[in-house]
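FW: tagging you since you asked about this chain on Friday. Here's the raw sequence from the shared folder, copied in full. Didn't touch anything.
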Amino acid sequence: MHIEIVTPIGVKYSGTARGVIVPGALGDMGILPGHQPLLAALRTGACTVDVEGHDQVVLLVDGGYVHVTEGQKVVITTELCETAQDIDVEAARSALESASAVLAQAREDVSTATWTLKKRAVDLATTRIRVGSTKGG
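HL: got it, structure written out here
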């Protein structure tokens, strides 16, 4: 099946795969060829593309949507997509430490937009560390 990841600045990934695991808003979702049509929200997380004959490709996606059509095409639309090679793990660790400290001191109710933005910074840094750690070598 064909996988495409699109960001506001263009196509970040395009290729064929045996399957993909996406970070759905309510949990990870596996998508294989022949999947029923689907449109679902995504959260910040790791997207794993199972490329036939190669190692899995792990990418960070920052929210958005996944759209499955014809059981053979998966389009992921996201604000941000980074490969393991794009990520500086040490910078991500530093960002996680800072974001976690800010979130720990948050006085907002967890249902506010301000708290959600602070939590998103923690999630993004955590995912960067996870995806960046998949680099070979």
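FW: DSSP finds two helices and eight strands in the chain.
HL: agreed, and The chain has two domains: 2-83, 86-132.
FW: great, closing this out.
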